[in-house]
Write a structure and sequence with these properties.
This protein is α/β, with parallel strands linked by helices. The protein is built from eight helices and six strands, in the order βααββααβαβαβαα.
């Protein structure tokens, strides 16, 4: 885990280091032994908005940071556009429902996390929520939405949460155009995604 990609308030800097020490070598489920890195998060702690994805992919596993592959670059571009249009920004932190790339064998194909893996990693996610103390949470995709709903219903996530499409889905629908700064107008699904992301980041629940 690259700690230099996390900016913490001095009051919780020690707690974040403790979190990294506790989880960077976790073996609570079989994914830990197959991971190149435990991908814990990046951004600001505490934060205004906590963004929660599904699971690390191959690039994230290799580098130890969430959302740095094609989906991450699209998300970064989309958030940049939203901030530019709003003329303001928010402090955000991004993580996933599980910290390790879900595979059935070392070097195998990435798959969706299963229930046992969610359960094993839930104390880590709860600790992230406690450190982040977010004003809002955003689920990136349906898997994350289900996890945040359960945490909210159980009283572990006390802030409002909302849902937007996962950027990988937008990519599959031709949404890479968001990364092209020469394109300023969008139609259909991509336009809706950007508007939903804008509402989620700035506090309008969907």
């Amino acid at each position: 885990m690259n700690e230099d990609r996390v900016t913490t308030h001095p009051a919780i800097a020690g707690r974040w280091k403790g979190h990294v020490n506790d989880w960077q070598g976790c073996q609570a489920c079989p994914l830990g032994s197959m991971a190149c890195h435990h991908v814990l998060g990046r951004g600001h702690l505490p934060c205004d908005v906590l963004l929660v994805g599904e699971a690390p992919g191959s690039e994230e596993d290799a580098q130890g940071l969430p959302f740095i592959g094609r989906s991450g670059r699209l998300l970064e571009a989309a958030i940049g556009r939203v901030f530019s249009e709003e003329g303001r920004s928010v402090h955000a932190f991004v993580t996933n429902t599980v910290a390790c790339a879900p595979r059935d064998e070392p070097g195998g194909k990435i798959r969706k996390p299963n229930g046992a893996e969610f359960t094993a990693c839930s104390p880590r996610l709860l600790d992230v929520i406690d450190l982040a103390c977010p004003k809002r949470a955003v689920a990136l995709g349906r898997v994350s939405q289900d996890v945040l709903r359960r945490l909210h219903d159980a009283g572990h996530l006390k802030c409002p949460y909302s849902y937007v499409y996962h950027p990988s889905y937008i990519l599959r629908q031709g949404g890479s155009v968001v990364c092209d700064t020469s394109v300023t107008r969008f139609d259909g699904l991509v336009d809706r995604w950007l508007k939903d992301l804008q509402k989620a980041l700035f506090g309008e629940n969907l």
